[in-house]
Amino acid sequence: MKGNVLIIGSGGREHALALRISQSSSVGNVFCLPGNPGTENFSTNISLDNSDYNSIYSFCQSEKIDLVVIGPEQPLVEGLSDFLREKKINVFGPSSLAAQIEASKSFAKNIMKEANVPTAEYKEFYRNDYQSALEYLKKSNYPIVIKADGLAAGKGVTICEHFQKAKETVDDIFVSNVFGQSGDKVVIEEFLFGEEASLFAITDGKDFITLPPAQDHKRIGDGDTGKNTGGMGSYAPTPLLDTNSILEIEQKIIEPTLQMLNEKGYPFVGCLYAGLIITKDGPKVIEFNCRFGDPETQVVLPLLDGDFLELLYSASTGQLNKNAVKYNGGSAVCVVAASSGYPDSYQKGFEILGLDNVDPEIIIYHAGTVKKENKIFTNGGRVLGVTAVLKNNDILEAQKKAYDALSKICFDGIYYRTDIADRVRKYLNYKK
After folding, report:
1. pLDDT tens-digit readout, 49-63
2. 290, 73 Cβ separation under 8 angstroms
3. For residues 306 and 297, is the Cβ–Cβ distance under 8 A?
4. Residues whose CB falls within 8 Å of the CB of residue 17, separated by 6 or more in sequence, listed in order
5. pTM recorded for the entire structure
6. How distant, in Å, are the alpha carbons of 137, 139, 162, 175, 420 from that of 125?
7. How many angstroms separate the CA atoms of 378 and 55, rounded?
8. Which helix (H) or strand (E) covers residue 275, if one does?
9. Interval 21-43: pLDDT, tens
10. CA-CA distance, 425 to 280, in Å (whole number)?
């Protein structure tokens, strides 16, 4: 039987999900709500308000949708998956309660503490604890990490090198209210030293499999400098995690976390994304997300052989098919082309030139784009994810191909990091 799929979201992650699902042997029709100019090449984009749950349900009924895949965190946290499940629609994505693993840093930390999952030491402070937070920071060791408790589009985490920066950060969150309600509480954590990696666990709430490990590049500037962003590039698989370390992460982090969520009464069905740091004491959790990462999804999914749709569908129905996909031995590098000024204010509406000049083997994921009169224009902070995929595991060759492709694309104010995947040289003991 061919299955019809509805994907919720409009970014590069959703482009990657839609592309990989459209290649599955069990797929029927693929719809994206709202999708973007990239997804319309192999799926049907739908103009519906994703907060209008009844219209989404009506669409699922009329198009005989067999599976809804929810890309971004916001609809998950707001309960779209709960609504559709109550209407007997299969959904890949956790309930709003389980999605608190991302929506509330303190919720996640408390789950980890109870499950004995290795993570940074921490303390929570509410907005009315402003003075107590400052007193705590005066006595703290630096650097230290301050996180807005709620969702902040990947920008709610600040690493503070000294007390003055920490005070400014607390003032921004509690006094200037830069994150609104998401900043009603902060989590102050010890700074962990080590290298970061991302690991996706696909789970039906009990069983799970992990996908090839990736590494994201969060900071806006080369050398991991400047502000945090939603992600400026990624590559997979990262040699930072070998088979043994992945097994350790599965046993000490993924398994106990899923078990604790189950015990609490909100089993996690979907993609549990573990943002990890590999310290001298072993892997620890920096944060969990309740969905696929962006831009890691763009490099992980092309490295899977098998039926990706079958994997997601089996997870959504509580009968995970752990043999649906396997790593194909390849490698991928994604470099994000962003608008000048991102992650702060930036301009939109510039025509993107050169897309037709790029080698067809390069995947250009659309993230912040819009189509007008058959031309593509910028429409967001992160605009494109230019991605090279190789059949063999050679990250540095994939890196070269990605940057070669990016050199052929231009728009006013284009900005990108020039060092995505450079750290592979260190991990593999290469010499520059």
Report:
1. 888 999 999 999 999
2. yes
3. no
4. 7, 9, 69, 71, 292, 297, 301
5. 0.95
6. 11, 15, 19, 14, 35
7. 29
8. strand 270-279
9. 999 999 999 999 999 999 999 99
10. 20
